[in-house]
UniProtKB/TrEMBL annotation:
Protein name: Glycoside hydrolase family 19 catalytic domain-containing protein
Superkingdom of this protein's organism: Eukaryota
Residue span(s) of domain Glycoside hydrolase family 19 catalytic: 32-42
Organism of origin: Rubroshorea leprosula
Entry's Gene Ontology molecular function annotations: chitin binding; chitinase activity
Signal peptide annotation: none
Gene3D superfamilies: 1.10.530.10
Gene Ontology biological process terms in this record: cell wall macromolecule catabolic process; chitin catabolic process; defense response to fungus
Keyword terms, alphabetized: Chitin-binding, Disulfide bond, Plant defense
The keyword Transmembrane is annotated on this UniProt entry: no
Amino acid sequence: MISYNYNYGPAGKAINYDLLNNPDAVATDVTISFQTAFWFWMTPQSPKPSCHDVITGKWTPSAADRAAGRVPGYGAITNIINGGIECGKGPNALVADRIGFYKRYCDLLKVGYGNYLDCYNQQPFA
């Protein structure tokens, strides 16, 4: 689920719905909830790549990304989603929980986890 006006405006425009004046629709309307989730997953929001590009290997980190510890993997996705709160703070329960859920679903789907699961040492995207 998305949050904050900097997401509601662009997401609403993409799905042709006024989320700025009705942000609760993201939580109360299942169709809008899925549309905005897909929008967030697929849409790069500079300087952040899309989550989709990271997980499918289409994102190549810049020199600045690498210097900030941002490398392809699930940790970069956490950084895109909630980096300012969860990343760059060393080991913490929020990231560990997120990794646990990710591993559980990977196990259910019988797919590998990949490398770089955490963002403990990644600086958040600007």
